[in-house]
Amino acid sequence: MAADLGNLSIAQLQALIDSQKNKLGSLYTKRDQLTKQLNALNSEIAAAEGKAGGAARGRPAHFTKTAAVAKRRGAATVQRAQNDKSLKTYVEEVLGATKKGLTIGEIQDAVLKNGYTTNSANFKNTLYQCLYHNEKSFVLDKKTKSYKLGGK
Q1: What is the largest CA-CA distance in the chain?
Q2: Per-residue pLDDT of the chain (152 residues; tens, 9 = 90+)
Q3: Do residues 18 and 65 share a domain?
Q4: Distance between CA atoms of 65 and 74, rounded to whole angstroms?
Q5: Using CA atoms, how far apart are residues 14 and 10, in angstroms rounded to an integer?
Q6: Which sign does the torsion angle of CA 120, 51, 44, 42 carry?
Q7: What is the dihedral of CA 131, 135, 141, 146, to 10 degrees?
Q8: Residue 99 sits in the same domain as residue 134
Q9: Of 118, 52, 51, 61, which Cα lies nearest the Cα of 91?
């Protein structure tokens, strides 16, 4: 076939390329339709097994119930709290206002008092994760169990 392509004009080659692009486009469309059908089938399987949004047997882990599906089924969805600044920024402001350092409980109270909003069932754990994963910004004094700004 490669020898045949050498004898074709530029217009004929362009027509072949356009034909392949059209075929590829229709294959993408068909794949998208089949994916939607498969997702719907997986949802039906999960519902039949009594799993509200959980993984159905044989269902890949990346298939999860979206908020839209949850809403259609009447499941409650929790709106994530939106803040002007990140939790890390709030903590930096609170710790920047003190030299002695603060315990996690004191940081929690101060951050919430400064206007940080959360829907977390365990905000203290969320705060701990923020402090732990930003160990260059926040230093723990193990004797007093208080945090101070670090790296400054």
Answers
A1: 84
A2: 555 777 888 999 899 999 998 998 888 888 988 988 888 888 888 888 876 554 445 545 444 555 556 566 666 666 777 888 899 999 999 999 988 999 999 999 999 999 999 888 899 999 999 999 988 889 998 999 999 998 65
A3: yes
A4: 13
A5: 6
A6: positive
A7: -20
A8: yes
A9: 118
